[in-house]
Amino acid sequence: MAEGTLRGPTALAPIARRWGRISPALVPVFAVITALIIGMLFMILTTFITRGSVDIGAELNRTGTAYAGLLEGSVGITLSNTLTADSLNLAEIYIANTPDMATRDLNLAARASDDVGKLGLETSLRYSELFARYPDLTDEQIDELGARIADIATIGDEKLLAMTPLIVGLNEIERDAAEALVEKAAASDTLTPEIRTELETDVPAAADYNDADLLSSLKTIQEQGLVKMGRLVEQAGVLSALELTSSSPDAQDIAAISILTSVKAREQAAFATKLQSLGILDPASLGSQLRLIKDLFDDGLLTAETVNAAIDTELDSIIQNRVVLLRPNDQIILSPNNAASGIIMAENKTPDDPRDDNVVDAVYLQLGTGRAFIFFPGNLENMIVRSIPFIIAGLAVALGFKAGLFNIGAEGQLYAGGILAAWVGFSPIFAGLSPWLHIPLVIIVGMAGGLLWGAIPGLLKAYTGAHEVINTIMLNFIAILLVDWLIKSNDPVILLDTTASVPRTPYLLETSRLPTFQSIPTWLFIAAGIVVTVFGLYQRRNTLQTDMRNIIPPVINGLLIGVGGLFLGWLGSRGKLHIGFVLMLIAVWLTDWFLERTTLGFEVRTVGANPDAARYAGMNVKLNIVLAMALAGLLAGLAGTIEVAGVQFNMQPGYFGGVGFDAIAVGLLARTNPRNMIAAGLLWGALLAGGGLMQTRAGISIDLVKIIQALIIMFVAADAIIRFLWRVPEATPEEKARTMFSNKGWGG
Question: Is the pTM here over 0.85, yes or no?
Answer without folding.
Answer: no
